[in-house]
Amino acid sequence: MNMLNVTFCGKKSKQVEYGTVAASLLDEFEEKRETIVAVRINNEVCPLDREIEYDCYIEPVLLNSKDGVLVYRRSLCLLLAAACHKIYPTERLVVGHSLGYGYYYTLEHPSPLTVEEISSLEKEMWNIVNQDLPIETRFVSYSSACKIFEELGLNETRKQLNYLAPPKIRINSIGDFADMYFGPLMERTGTLKVFELMPYKKGFLLRFPKSSDSTKLSEFVDEPKLFEIYERYKNWGKQLNVTSAASLNQMINERKIDDFIMVAESLQVHCISKIAEEIVNRKGVRVVLLAGPSSSGKTTTSKKLAMQIQALGYTPKVISLDCYYAGRDKTPLDADGKPDYECLEALDVELLNKNLVDLFDGKEVNIPSYDFHDGKPYFEEKNKMTLKENEILIMEGIHGLNDRLTPKIPKECKFKVYLSALTQLNLDDHNRISTSDNRLIRRIVRDARFRGKGAAGTIAMWPSVQRGEQLHIFPFQNNADAILNTALDYELAVLKIYAEPLLRCVNPSQKEYSEACRLLNFLSNFAPIPPTSVPNRSIIREFIGGSAFKY
């Protein structure tokens, strides 16, 4: 009765005793022990110290996999926090957004850290690495967790426990420092040997390796425009005292959230209005090219931007780059032999440029439509268009920032806008909110409500979407004339109402179960906001429905 059946990688099986620790079974895998950082137990990613308590199949999580990368990066964040507590025990370390292959941090210090102080902090991290200390994970009572975080000065983490209050709390520790992270960590500090602290702006970057090569750091590529937007929104959050899930939950609990929603929506409209002013003040602009990754809100933003341009006395006309798909028979194939609709070559670039040149010359053109079912373009009389002197064309699509899309259009005729769902909120001081996670949750909700796709299907195709973004969108974001942050700091509290039931339908027999569990764990940090609180012209309506705009 105490023996359990364990299957390894879907192949060989063996009987083990109830309570056997997963780490003791790693020799059963073909992969080298040092490359395994966690395990999948019935498709749930678990730490190596997890005990086997039921019949299961088990697979290794390797360092260079997506899940393995998250384990390594979380562990680096804990290492930095422990080192910072050692040197600056009374000062607040705050993680920001990602920048290249790194996270931006600031320290609430009398003055920004000097290069020498950052070097000393990195030296303390290496000191902890060289000691090869265990990274411990344990459960403590709720009251014990509150006391631990109060004594360590982790005020945001402590405040979150007012709204996330299970009877036991999982905490992670290195030596006498403890913190709370939402996923497995490495076993020992001695495994964290590829990182650096790099001075940047008023803080520094914790840099880590790419997932494709865990042995070295890649060359740093700056993104100054994106950082400027992030800083602006971070300062805005500080002014309103809403910088974390805990502070958002407090506002919901105190019934002040409706005012915050209106302020957040007004800020976004204000930012769109400023971009519209830039467009019309730059004489000669005939086409606005709107680009951004999946679920960044391109469709709603194009409509809102059109309204603001119209308010300034111009007539906007909006079309999607999807109209210019060349056809399934002309679309290049990806590595899996499937049509690659995200590459530039999937579009009829020649026709697009001819249409634009003709429009700018005052000629009438027939804008194509695309039949996604048959995989063919077609033309309708109602899509004929001209562009008068006071009319501005708005085109939205993933390739808008790539000059290869519009090689025949003079630079002065184009205005490029990049969209990014860049929330300034953190879960707490040391746990950031991933822009990609924000967009994935938007996409899961929209796919289920409007495309009949379950959460598992959206999760399964997300890596392919991200690969396309890395190739076709992110390399061109610094080409933008303006950047708009389309994230709303309250949106995850609304989206969770729709996303959680969908994620719970992913079961342990599906590969996507581990990601569903991770996202459910993430969303548990937010108190819900009813969708009735969302204005009917909000960008969130693009994903949950009920928008005043027609899509």
Could you explain the architecture of this structure?
The protein is of the alpha/beta class and 551 residues long. The protein is built from 14 helices and 21 strands. Helix 1 (66-87) packs across helix 2 (115-131). The radius of gyration is 25 Å and the shape is globular.
Secondary structure: elements and pairs:
Elements: E1 3-8, E2 13-17, E3 36-41, E4 44-46, E5 56-62, H1 66-87, E6 93-98, E7 102-107, H2 115-131, E8 136-141, H3 142-152, H4 155-160, E9 168-174, E10 177-179, E11 196-200, E12 203-207, H5 224-240, H6 245-253, H7 257-281, E13 287-291, H8 298-311, E14 315-320, H9 349-360, E15 365-366, E16 369-371, E17 376-378, E18 384-385, E19 391-396, E20 414-420, H10 435-450, H11 455-472, E21 482-485, H12 491-504, H13 513-523, H14 541-544
Parallel strand pairs: 1-5, 13-19, 13-20, 14-19, 20-21
Antiparallel strand pairs: 1-2, 3-4, 3-5, 6-7, 7-12, 8-9, 9-10, 11-12, 15-18, 16-17
Q: How is the largest sheet built, in terms of strand order? A: 2-1-5-3-4
**Low-pLDDT sequence parts:** none
Strand content: 15-25%
Give helix % range: 25-40%
Largest sheet: 5 strands, mixed
Number of helices: 14
Gap between N and C termini, in Å?
Answer: 58 Å
β-strand number: 21
Summarize model confidence as the mean pLDDT: 94
* Rg on CA atoms, Å: 25 Å
Given helix and strand content, the structural type is alpha/beta
